[in-house]
Each structure stands twice: as structure tokens, then as C-alpha cells.
Amino acid sequence: MFQSFDVKSTPLHGKERIAALRALFSEMGVDGVLVPRSDEHLGEYVPASAERLAWATGFTGSAGQLLVTDAEAVVFVDGRYVTQVAQQVDLAVFTPGDLIGEPPHTWIANHAGKGFRLGIDPWMHTGVEVSRLEKVLEDKGGALVLLSFNPIDRLWSDRPAEPLGQVSIQPESYSGVPAAEKITRIAADLTAKGLSAVLISDPSSVAWIFNIRGADVPHTPHPLARAIIKADGKAELFLDSAKTNLEVETYLRDLCEQVDPQLLAERVERVATGGGRILIDPDLAPHALAQMIKQGGGTAIVGNDPAKLGRAVKNLVELNGSAVAHLQDGVAVVEFLTWLDQQPAGTITEIGAAKALEASRVRVGERMQNPLKDISFETISGAGEHAAIMHYRVTTESDRMINAGEMFLIDSGAQYVNGTTDITRTISIGAVPEEQKRFFTLALKGMIAISTARFPKGTRGCDLDPLARIALWKSGADFAHGTGHGVGSYLSVHEGPQRISRLSTQELLPGMILSNEPGYYRPGSFGIRIENLIYVREAEVIEGGDQPMLGFETLTFAPIDRQLIVEDLLTREELQWLDDYHARTRAELLPLIGDPSAREWLERATEAFEH
After folding, report:
1. Strand pairing category for 117-120 and 143-146
2. Among residues 291, 299, 358, which one has the least CA distance to residue 329?
3. d(CA 556, CA 531)
4. Are 472 and 432 in contact (CB under 8 A)?
5. What is the dihedral of CA 54, 380, 452, 498, to 10 degrees?
């Protein structure tokens, strides 16, 4: 199994650990500390050695921050984790906070006393975050204290060792562009802008530039590494030699110098000496790197990571690879859904279903000679009230039967060498209440609206987000997560800068892969999410139109549960889209499925509506 269902944290130690943290305040010269859910590379998915927030609080979500003062311990989470944080932390010790409505810097402005001194680890925060905190603290006559050590690490006596996952080469047959060409382009751009070098701090960018993949982070195949690319085309890759074998080292030798990560400060100083102008991305780089450049005598130039858009806009080889990976994944999902449909209600648990889906992906990968490399995130397998927890992680303690008369939500994904997948299906287990069907159909209307959208060049994710919500809004409902996130090419399942959300100002460009996943969640009762991956493409010419348009092409193919659809709530055009989608799903997947029962199930599940 690529995932475990063990209980990974507990609220039982929160009181003693917060007390121990407060005991360090005088040594650090602070009145409070801020502990984000990130690592020194600022990644969303982090190794076990960087699960500092979970260690301190018991909260295991992928986004959050802990602010500890003498009197308060606030765990800030976004809308995805409101229910989860209340269940995972000791509410006698911690107060849940609003990461969006009142994030830590706003909380400090509203609640901290005069002269408040806040301690942070500068490796855990971007320059943008540091500037924001400095401003609010200055307004209070306080100060931001950049700590020389991480206080959680001081207290965490059995902290796991840092990972040494093995690095592999991503062949050009899957990457589409040789690494040497990417480095040359970046160097030319640096020269044109009068810059000395760029410091690449995002491991996903490092993996994409050098066409390598790693195994340091759960379910995300990038190595924890940094790189310096200079205007003269020379490159240094800060990658532990324990992660590379002779083949990889020989490959890298033609591209760069592989350098011990411990030498990063020394090498940055070499470039910075004499006023070197070094580009860093303020949204991706830890503040400590900007400090390093300044201390070396250089200037940190704020700008976009040159790989950010490059990896977001997939080339034709990457798009074709993703399409093939999604067909394989669709076969695995259909075979799983066939199996699930054959099990009597009340005989399969949430863990049993998650295991069965992963096993299906393994079997299909072996059969199609494209092995499952990993899952792309821990499977969200929730029935009934558990489905209302948006990022529910089933454990041996929370596992329950999937019973008749309720909906079952399974959100999962896979990592294949030719693509990353992410799919959610909500399934009826027997007859479910009409109200739940109504909300399912409203969410489906939003998904179809995004799938069929046509929009001019320059359109941003925030411009399209309301399309996914309008049917729910008209019914007095909404969902507290973005409509869609970017997806990498055998990289992170959550990739920026592209996304569809209220906050996304990134222009949507042809080749960007995104998720399309409206939902609805009623805490303590039920949850719904329907998700396909899509990519931006140039749309067909619209008759009578006077400018070119963009649209989306669907990558994910698997049936949407017809038993949950209230047909009368769909327009003729929406029903036609659904019938066309199911017809294509059947046409694409049926030739790849050998099992007669799965073929028969797929044909039934993709029957057209009568309209």
C-alpha cells in the first residue's frame, strides 16, 4: 500500500507541548511564536520530519498555522478544515482561527498588546509574509524576531530523520523538452534582465528544470533540493549525494554541478559578492534565502520563478502523456466501481474501499505496463457524515461501514510516469434522500458550467469561479473551497500558479491543467464533490463571434452516478453534455477493459437520459 490508515496524531499532548513552547519564550526574547504547516522548502506536502504543526497540536490538515502567546494558542485553518480541526485538537488548549478571514497578521493587529514581540523561523516564511508581519508589529511598537533555531525542533525529541529519497531521471519522452534547453532559456532571460543568477527554491521547479523526480515527500515525486542558475548558463544543484546513484550523477554532470546542500550559503555568497543581482520568487522563497543574499553583499531581486509558468503550461508531450495516464486511471476507477456495486451495503468499510481502489490501480498498471508509481495524495474515503469533512482522512479509529441509504465520497489520485491524476466521485449506496440528490445535481450543474465555459484570452481563475457556484447560490448554498487547483506533470497534484478560485488572479493559458470540483457539504450529515481534471485549450470558432476564445478539454473519464441526478434540474444543454461525456467515457474505456462484468457495468452506468 502507498498509504497507511494509522492514527498519525493525537490531541493528548497539546497541553504539555504548548507549555514547553511557552517555557522557551524568555530564551528567545519573544511574547509569542508562529508555527506554520510547512517545511524549509515551503511545500504543501511535507516529510514526516517537518510535521511540526501536527506534533504541536494534533491537527493534520495540509494548510494551517499555530500562533502561541502567553495567553492564547490559536490554530488557523481555512474553510476545508473547520470541522476537522475541531475534532483533532484539544479545544481546552487551542482556539480554532480563520486563516482567510482573520489570518495571523490580522489577528495580531486586532488582539496583540503593545510592544508584542513575535518569533518566527525565517526558513518557514516567505519575504511577503515577513513584510506583512513586520508592518503590523511595527504599528504596535513591537518587533518581529527572526529566530536562530526552530523551537519545535528543540522540543521534538523523537523527530524523524530528514528524508533521503532516491532521485530518478524523467526521460524526454515524458518531459517533452531536454533539461539543457530549459537551463539555456532561463540563463538567456537572466542576461536580458541584467541579473547575475536565479535561486530556485521550489522543489517542483527544480524537478521540472532538471527533468528529475524524487521521493522525499509523500505522494509528490520531487526531491527536496535547491538550485542556482547563472546568467552564463552554469548551474549548481544542491542535492544530497545520498539521493543519487551513478546513473543520475552521470546525467546531472552534463547539466550542472551537484553540490552538498550544506554549502548553499557559501555558494550564494560567491554569486552575491560584489553586488550580484539574484532573482528570487517572493511567493516561493523562504525569507532566510533573501537574508543570505544580503549578507553575501548581493541584492535579492524579487520576481517570478522562471519555471513557474513553464511547468504550469504543459507542452504537447506532457498533455498527451496525461491523457494516456487518465485513460489508464479511468479503467482502474471503473473496475473499482464495478466491484463496489457488487458488494452488499453495510459489508465494506471506508478503509476497505480505499484499499480496493488502490489495488485496482496497481492491477491495471501492471496489465497496461505503466506501473502505479504512487498515489497522488491520501485517499479521501468518506461515507455519510464523514463525506462532509472536506479533507477527511480515514483512520483505523474513524473507519466505518458504508451503509445503505447514504452517499459515499471517494477522492483519489495516482502518480504515473506520464501524468498525475485526481478524481472524485460521489456514489449512492442504495436509495438516498431526494434532498441529497438535489444538492448533487446543483454541484453537477457547476461542474458542467466550467466544463463548457468559453472565455477570452486574459480570463483569470477568479473570473470563472462563480460559474461553478451560481446554481448553489440560487439555492442559498455554497462550498468553502476553491473550484479547481493546478495539477503537475508527474509532479504535485496541487500546482500553482493556475487555479479556479475567488483569489486566483493568474491568467488561464493554453496547456494549463486544472481540477474542476464543485461540491456541497452539510456537517454531520453528508458531503458531495464531483471532480474531473481539465486543461485549457483554444476553443473552436464560435459562429457569429468576433474574437478567439479559450475553453477546456476534459482529461478524466469515469461515469458520474446517474442515480443521484434530478433530471428536471438540468437544462437540455446540460443533459446533452452529460450524455456526450458518458458516450465518450464508454468509447474510450470499453476497449481497454477485459473483464465482462466491468464492461457490462460501464455500459449501464453510461446510458443516455431520455430527453
Report:
1. parallel
2. 358
3. 9
4. no
5. 20
Domain count, the chain: 3
Indicate the SS3 state at residue 108: helix
pLDDT confidence of residue 611: 63
3-state secondary structure string across 242-254? HHCCHHHHHHHHC
510 Cβ contact list (under 8 Å, min separation 6): 313, 536, 537, 538, 550
Which pLDDT score is estimated for 7? 85
- Residue 2 maps to a domain: no
* Phi/psi at 29 (5° precision): 70, 40
d(Cα 242, Cα 248) in Å, to the nearest integer?
11
Does 320 map to a domain? yes
- Grid cell 497507511 — which residue? 4
CA distances from 359 to 313, 345, 414 (A): 32, 20, 12
Contacts of 515 (CB under 8 A, 6+ apart): 422, 484, 485, 487, 531, 532, 533, 534
The residues near 23 (Cβ < 8 Å, ≥ 6 apart) are: none
Q: H helices within 78-225, ranges in order? A: 82-88, 104-111, 127-139, 151-155, 172-175, 179-192, 203-210
Instruction: Give the 3-state DSSP-derived string for 478-536, with helices as H, strands as E and coil as C.
Output: CCCCCCEEECCCCCCCCEEEEEECCCCCCECCCCEEEEECCEEEECCCEEEECEEEEEE
Amino acid identity at 580: D
Query: What range defines the domain where residue 84 resides?
Result: 11-155
Phi, psi of 359 (to 5 degrees): -65, -35
**Which parts of the chain have pLDDT scores under 50?**
none
The verdict on residue 522 lying in a domain is yes
pLDDT of residue 8: 82
Does residue 610 form part of some domain? Answer: no
In our burial notation (b when 16+ CB lie closer than 10 A, e otherwise), range 119-148 reads bbbbbbbbbebbebbeebbeebebbbbebe
- 33 three-class SS: strand
